[in-house]
Amino acid sequence: AQTVTQSQPEMSVQEAETVTLSCTYDTSENNYYLFWYKQPPSRQMILVIRQEAYKQQNATENRFSVNFQKAAKSFSLKISDSQLGDTAMYFCAFMKLMEYGNKLVFGAGTILRVKS
Amino acid sequence: GAVVSQHPSRVICKSGTSVKIECRSLDFQATTMFWYRQFPKQSLMLMATSNEGSKATYEQGVEKDKFLINHASLTLSTLTVTSAHPEDSSFYICSARVTLAKNIQYFGAGTRLSVL
Predict the structure, then answer these.
(1) How far apart are CA B77 and CA B22, in angstroms?
(2) Which residues lie across from A11 on neighbouring strands?
(3) Sign of the CA dihedral A62, B108, B69, B17?
(4) Is the CB of B57 less than 8 angstroms away from the CB of A43?
(5) Minimal Cβ distance to B97: which of A44, A102, A108
(6) B19: which of A10, A91, B94, B114 lies 20 to 30 Å off by Cα?
(7) For B60-106, what is each residue's pLDDT tens digit?
(8) Is B44 helix (H, G, I), strand (E, B) or coil?
(9) Which helix (H) or strand (E) holds B73?
């Protein structure tokens, strides 16, 4: 079974600075997807960024970028120019490609607090 | 982006009653929807995968008769918590997979269930 590990329960960063959230996963699959989701205090899950395992190029979405190391099974999220609105719980998630369902497996989450 | 509507956002009920939660994909068709449960400050735990027109697939340890799932159309899945008890109090979140596209799951805003 796939597992996703987020080793940082809580992180804090000063506004406008850069922070990196770590994520490792365990799988024997070669083809899969990785995601970072954000859950702010409203508890609405929001997709931050997505990475396809067969793509070597790291995904970027504005201030958000990932460092995908397939051999090391590592998928960290870098947030640049942190903003107060980035304060949230961040979940790393793994998706194995299946015939039906394509279930997401979530990590335990990292609470990120952006300080002014 | 794709919008998933979940209703109600909050429900309080007496022990022994049943509660129905609706999950709708508003601007896309979703052959597959997912139901999660989340305890405070914890990760999302998949309860079941709901496929349109067929029986739901439940995760190990989830009581099928307690959590009834119906996916009658391509835009609606419902979760009914039957004979609710205080230990069923939790945050329930649905998600829908955008058919034929990029294996992305979009999430509803969640339902906070409190059983008295």
Answers:
(1) 6
(2) A112
(3) positive
(4) no
(5) A102
(6) A91
(7) 999 999 999 998 888 999 999 999 999 999 999 999 987 656 678 89
(8) strand
(9) strand B67-73
